Structures are given as structure tokens and as C-alpha cells.
UniProtKB/TrEMBL annotation:
Polar residues biased stretches: 7-20
Gene source species: Etheostoma spectabile
Annotated region described as Disordered, given as residue ranges: 1-31
Name of protein: Uncharacterized protein
InterPro entries the UniProt entry points to: DUF5524 (IPR040247)
Length: 82
């Protein structure tokens, strides 16, 4: 099987048709942002969205005190039944 460039192996020096790789390929994929890169690839090469995994410390709020409803609580202290 031969690849796109006519080489058998992707490992430099093992392919009989190509003695050295082009400069763009020897640098590595993440070496620089190219104009031909898509917006997604440019963002990925630059490290992604800034602050994506960052969160601010949330302030702890106090729960509201329990307030019984007026219809269940008479407040008079009488134990009389209606």
C-alpha cells in the first residue's frame, strides 16, 4: 500500500521514494497555526478556549429560616379543637 505521496512508510528514512519530509511535516502538527487550518484546528493548536475549565468559587448562601404557614399554626398556644 502506498500513501498519498507515493511513500510506503510514514517513518522518515524507510520509504524508498522520499528521502526527507517537507519542512511543513517535519515541524509537527502543533508547531504553528497555518492559514489553511480551519477555525477549529486553529483553536485547538492555540490551546482551546481560555478559561474553559475555570470556575469561580461560589459564595455559600445561608438557608432561609423555617417560617410555618399561618393556617397550620395558631400561635395562641390553645389546645382547643374547633
Amino acid at each position: 500500500y502506498q500513501g498519498i505521496d507515493g511513500q510506503i512508510s510514514q517513518i522518515p528514512g524507510l520509504s524508498p521514494t522520499i528521502s526527507t519530509l517537507p519542512e511543513e511535516r517535519t515541524r509537527g502538527r502543533r508547531a504553528g497555526v497555518l492559514d489553511s487550518d480551519s477555525d477549529y484546528v486553529k483553536l485547538a493548536k492555540q490551546g482551546g478556549h481560555k478559561g474553559l475549565l475555570w470556575h469561580e468559587e461560589s459564595t455559600t448562601s445561608k438557608p432561609d429560616a423555617y417560617k410555618p404557614l399561618g393556617r397550620f399554626f395558631t400561635g395562641s398556644g390553645d389546645d382547643e379543637k374547633p
